[in-house]
UniProtKB/TrEMBL annotation:
Signal peptide: none annotated. This is SnoaL-like domain-containing protein. It comes from the Bacteria. It comes from Kribbella hippodromi. Gene3D superfamilies: 3.10.450.50. SUPFAM superfamilies: NTF2-like. Residues 7-128, 142-255 form the SnoaL-like domain.
Amino acid sequence: MTDEQQIRTLIEHWAAAVHAGDLAAVLAEHSPDLVMFDVPPPYEGVRGMDAYTETWPGFFEWQRSGASFELVSLDVTAGTDVAFAFALLRCGTPDEFKVKPELRLRLTIGLKKLDGRWTITHEHHSFPHDDVPAPVVASEIGAVLDRWGTDTAAGDLDALMEPIADDVVSYEIDGNYEGKAAVREVCAAGLASSPDSISFSIPDPTVVSAGNLAVAWSIDHVTADGTETTSRATRVFRNTGSSWELIHQHLSYPAS
């Protein structure tokens, strides 16, 4: 085999060993002084075979929950005694892929030819950092809440439902509802309860976020038939990659 073919086979065997949870095969073909830049800390990297070995049992345990570790692409460039490869892997749980089907682990591997054998001396694993800056999230969630006000005034039920997740769970004033269809019925009944347009506004929502989740809490103002009421609201949103969708909300009045 050519050097590129040898390295490709080595990495394919390594990835298969990771997926199988075969620690001995994972450690094979690695230099004792290797350095790995992994997804979790330490930030200075994992250095040496002992430290590298210790990273795998926890990963194997997570993988037994049904997670994948599969090569999607692999490119290899080899010189006389130094080589590198870069790859994308499908690494995640079924639930993670439901939310983000394109999720990929990025991998770069450095190798040296030692005693006539290609040996891994460096690994770098990472996922893209997709946290949206907090001010941007607050603006985007604020836009969703403002649009609900506009759509409520227009009586546009379809538009109201657009940012609602199929698996939403909503704790409403009058009961608990699961699923988009159930929440749609609640909203339809609300719109039909007033002969005039309904005003719905959230003046000063607070939004905090991390990763693909955001939480907003607020005092909601609703005016129908000339009467204004206020209620407390906590809402959880999930970023689908293209928009924010409501996955949970909790509405209440203070106990009198």
